[in-house]
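Retro notes - structure team

What went well: the batch runner handled both jobs without manual restarts.
What didn't: labels got mixed up in the shared folder, which is why I'm recording both outputs here explicitly, each with its sequence directly above its tokens.

Job 1
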Amino acid sequence: MSLADLSLRSVKVRLFLTCWMVYVLHFATDFVREHYLVLSIVEDHTFRLDPYLGMHVDIFQNPPTAPHGGVHQDANPGISFVGAIPYFLTKPAVDLVVAKTLASRGQADTTAQYNDPRWRRVEFYQKVRRLGLDVRFGLVGAITQAFCMAPLSAYSAVVIFGLLGHLGLGRRMALALAFLYAFGTPVFFRTAFLNQNLGIGVASLLAFVLIWNPGGHLRWSLRTRYLLAGFLGGFCLLTDYSGGLSLGLLGLYALWVGRDEHDFGQGFRDSLWYAAGAIPPVLMLFYYQWASFGDWFHPAQHWMPPVEGTDVGYKGVGGLSTELVRLLLIDPRYGLFIVAPITLLAFAAPWLNRRGTSLLPSRETWFCLAYAVAFILFFGCVQYTRVQYVTGLRYLVPVIPFLFLPAAAVLLRLPRWLGYSLALVSFVINWSISMVRSQGSVIDNLIHVFVAGFQLPWLTVLGKTSKQYLPWLEAPVNALPFFVLLGVLIAVVWTIRDPAQPPEG
């Protein structure tokens, strides 16, 4: 059965399932600050994180100057709100598993082993094991990844595929580029656990497509599209204050599109629908800040205790630093052009527009580049950029979809051997860092894979903690059988008969 024989909907479903399965298999057990808010919302119906004080550096006791007391996190709640949905639905099953596990365990083991050189991780694991939270934390991490982050990223790959098709690209090439976006960019790496930066990127991409509506393929009215786009833009702000860039830039883009298609006056009136759509999530952010800190206006970072870097500017946000821009772009551990080398191609896209040979229209090319540059300049002012080595590329993840589109336009114009080579390099880099997840350089991750072979983050951690859960398991654990199983499942997804096709004969 060839790709041309499948219906468009069938191809999109198969693309989604393939991406989802690959993402889920590469689940990482990192338990981040956003997970604690998921737990509090679902279990205690509150934004307070009192039971988890001391478990994460971003969780703090409100200072005496805050009108409200309690323990909270220094982040916006948007992605935690989304992650709370699958946990709420699965909590009865999680409670059952946790209860049976703790009952069979008996007295807590205070000498739990975690064979890892990073003492902070060992200390954290032993603490949650001692408190009987290890299984719950593991299940919550897996659930929020499998039913929040993985579906969001998989759907964004489907959006990229559909968008490329509407721009006139053939189905086979559009599918290949969608897979390159899914697995040859840091989208792969960041999908492994609950992450607000990737949530901003996906929401911004969806809002961008809603406003643009290339070829008029969306049959919704302009009012509906702009309302939804505004809601997604507002969700970006609800998810992180850097999402305010997305909210504002997408609003300007809506005005730009309206001006081009009608006139400035009509474009302004149309963009008011975008502003109206943004109101609910923005009000939700104000409510969250009031409920947590007693002050609807100031962000969570306003109340956090001083840490390294916060003495610069306002809570670590100061003037533009060329050093920080350099770290963002070319640091060997997390630099954008190091972990996503194909994004460099995006900046050659305007040259194709001038020649009239670009897949992407000039207006959209310039918007995508402006979106990326805005984030680069903003985080070039943020001191937290220096600590990205802990979790890899993070702050610039929202720009990945916007740089991928113009980069794809350039990639298609390169000699075939060069285009395939660059795509392969990006895939190998991002698959390697998604398997190893080392705090070292990209080269360290590549060497580790080529020397130690295939691996999976959750399987690596299981091997390091096997004494507590599977005493018979010896580390390192061979990941190859899981990749074979994944290959079989993907083959089934792409060979099963399309229900839309009439039966043969």
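Job 2
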Amino acid sequence: MRTPLAAASVAAASAALLAGCTAQPQGEPMPVPSATSTPTPSATVDPLTLGPVQPTGAVSVLATGLAAPWSMVRLESGSTLVSERDTALIKELTAEGTLRDVGTIPGVDPGGEGGLLGIEVVDDELFAYFTSASDNRIVAFDLVGDAGGYSLADGRDVVTGLAKASNHNGGRIKIGPDGMLYATVGDASQPGLAQDPVSYNGKILRMQLDGSAPPDNPIAGSLVYSLGHRNPQGLAWDTDGRLWAAEFGQDTWDEINLIVAGGNYGWPTVEGIGGDPAFVNPVAQWPTDDASPSGLAVVRETVFMAGLGGERLWGVYAGDPVTTASFFFDSYGRIRDVIAGPNGTLWMLTNNTDGRGDPRAGDDQILQVELAPLP
């Protein structure tokens, strides 16, 4: 088990981390296109074909009646696990479409934006990021049984002691292509923590599965991979192995960033694209009413971003400059998470029952849409 490092162990290395941040060229704010309806190209994309894609055709409903769902992860068995923030339940959606309870995560203390947040599955263990009575933490539980009958067994602490608050808890966890566990941690409404290399808040963390620091992290013995984040909630890797992260802004700009080891992304000094070469600029930004970004998924050469307050799905297309397009504006309400589905599809998780949305019939839901090449 790892807890945030004592000041003496990393203070000497903090200057090196801050000095090593990669500055990006400055520029004007990225233009944000207006909301668009879903286009309908003539043919769907082959799952093995590369290239940018977009949603097409009718949206299918895979599951209904979820309560403030937060994260979903597909398993090789064909089942999908879903976390519910306030009930602390893990639910299983089988390949046949049955929705059942797997178990309750012990120790979850929901409140505000806290509760059971991100989940990931590795080697028959379910990793869960959640808010307890005293902190935010990551705990791994044995996932036992088979598809249609999964249950949870013993748990072990991976990381504890992350500062919690009624908001800005971060909470996304993902396994990277390097086999390491990455976690987004919010600033817990204490903006100064984001620039403090001793604190794990306002950071993206990178760790081994036992919670220890990989030897090639930017600071020896520390889990800090990047700093200067306000409330990041999305992580995904593209086909080139680059790490993308989505982040809530305060009043002006929400961001999507390309993350580099040791990079400083500016919060609270900078929100969005700034003029300080000490900080890494986002590759795209949105007015906060248009995004409030959460989960990310990369399918072929497209980064899809779930929008909560913006009530839409965003497509982010790498290029010079990066371009964006929106889909399903005001069709399904708040979208919390997005993942690659089977056979070239995309899955979306709505989040209208969390106290901030306007629930619609059947909410909350898991939705599936096919993808087609971008014209």
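One thing worth noting from job 2: The chain has one domain: 7-20+39-373.
We'll revisit the folder naming next retro.
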